[in-house]
Design goal:
The chain is an alpha+beta fold. It has a single domain (9-130), classed as 2,3-Dihydroxybiphenyl 1,2-Dioxygenase, domain 1. It has 2 helices and 9 strands; from the N terminus they run E-H-E-E-E-H-E-E-E-E-E. It has helices at residues 17-26, 72-84, and strands at 9-13, 39-44, 47-52, 62-68, 88-95, 101-106, 112-117, 122-123, 129-130. It has a 7-stranded mixed beta sheet. Strand 6 and strand 7 (112-117) form a beta hairpin. The protein is globular, with a radius of gyration of 14 Å.
Amino acid sequence: MAMEQRISLVTLGVKDLARARRFYETLGWSGAHQPDDEVCFFQAGGMVFGLWTALGGHGAPGIELAHNVRSPEEVRAVLAEAERAGGIIVRPAGRADWGGTTGAFADPEGYVWEVAHNPGWTLHDDGTIHI
């Protein structure tokens, strides 16, 4: 199974979630979805933009890309494909606190991609995603 060519989510690590959210809302972004005190999502066209205080485990500036899939089984398949291609599994597939299935791999340069199935988000046939 080949990984579909798309980015579903870009997440920035932030030190102060409230400040970061205010900044983007002041720029005119609206419709923030904040399920808890650690993360906030904005719909950004056909993808999602996130702010997360726990990125890398310490709220440091950082970035994580995400690739959402249509089933929990696809999470494992995409991780296996990434490993075969030379990536390193940094989080094996498993059940997430938020109810989906997630895992992650790093590409040869160290950039981390989360692979996730989120049953609460709609992944359309054309690859666009909506929260």
